[in-house]
Specification:
Strand 4 (101-105), helix 4 (125-142) and strand 5 form a beta-alpha-beta unit. The protein has eight helices and nine strands. The longest helix has 18 residues, at 125-142. It is 34% helix and 19% strand. The structure holds zinc ion (ZN) (2 copies). One zinc ion is lined by residues 79, 105, 107, 150-151.
């Protein structure tokens, strides 16, 4: 079975340069079996930006149309941005609609987007990364209506530090807490290939010890998403990261349909 890109942003996300039709055509061209459109819901984004909201009915109508027109599976998703003070609104928004798959992510820490340099002022590397992970843990205790934890190492994407990696040896305690929670509650951990791209001059690195530990604790479900905001990135580096995931002991890549886990067996490449 072919892989599904389980994390993509269409024109319903204000920061995306890709139309849904392009995502689907590119997924077909890339030899994928499916694509999940997971547009942003970030209620009360800092800096007063309320544009990270969309009309799921309109988005879903379009997803369903494209699904009916193309040979690959096109599924309805959402990427929920978690903040402790907006949980009630997020819950009611999500509950009003039917999604195939929900990704929950942290985009803001203590009211600041780590995309901007101000997050790092007065924080050393361990504090900056550690606070991001703690925020994930706090949020998933409060918001559980999701299938996949998005980009646990998002914080390394924009960090101004030379070491852009969440080392298991440094953050093992908090990672274990997050992973135990995911495993006990039947959630998947995402490998997001958007993280491992050159930014600020270097490429963030995935510590495979993190994945091995997740496996050791009983984690089975790993999803793979490009987090594409433009067509060129659909399915980006999937061969490479599938192999990384396989080498850490996993045999399947997971995505969700009707909120149920779908498993795609990893084939060996030569
Ligand atoms: Zn995200
Ligand atoms: Zn995303």
């Amino acid at each position: 079975m072919k892989l599904t890109d389980s994390h993509t942003h269409s024109e319903f996300s204000p920061d995306s340069r890709m139309r849904m039709e392009q995502a689907v055509s590119q997924a077909i061209a890339a030899g994928l079996g499916g694509v999940i459109i997971t547009d942003h819901l970030d209620i009360r984004a800092p800096k007063g930006d309320d544009s990270f909201l969309f009309d799921p009915l309109e988005q879903q109508k379009k997803v369903e149309l494209l699904n009916s027109l193309h040979p690959i599976e096109v599924l309805k998703g959402i990427e929920v941005g978690m903040q402790l003070h907006t949980m009630a609104e997020v819950k009611s928004f999500v509950a009003r609609h039917k999604f195939d798959q929900i990704i929950a992510s942290v985009h803001f820490v203590d009211g600041i987007d780590p995309y901007y340099g101000e997050y790092y002022v007065g924080k050393d590397q361990d504090t900056a990364y550690g606070r991001y992970l703690e925020t994930i843990y706090l949020c998933i205790q409060e918001y559980t209506d999701f299938d996949i934890l998005g980009h646990y190492d998002y914080i390394t994407r924009y960090a101004p530090f030379t070491e852009r990696i969440i080392h298991h040896s440094k953050f093992g305690d908090i990672l274990d807490q997050i992973f135990r929670f995911l495993i006990q509650n039947g959630k998947a951990l995402e490998i997001n290939t958007n993280t491992y791209r050159k930014k600020n001059g270097t490429i963030p690195v995935l510590d495979t010890a993190v994945l091995k530990r997740y496996k050791e604790l009983g984690g089975e479900a790993i999803s793979l998403g490009s987090d594409a905001h433009d067509p060129e990135r659909i399915g980006e580096k999937f061969d490479h990261f599938t192999e990384v995931i396989r080498s850490c002991g996993f045999r399947y890549i997971t995505h969700y349909k009707n909120r149920e886990a779908q498993f795609t067996k990893i084939h060996l490449h030569r």
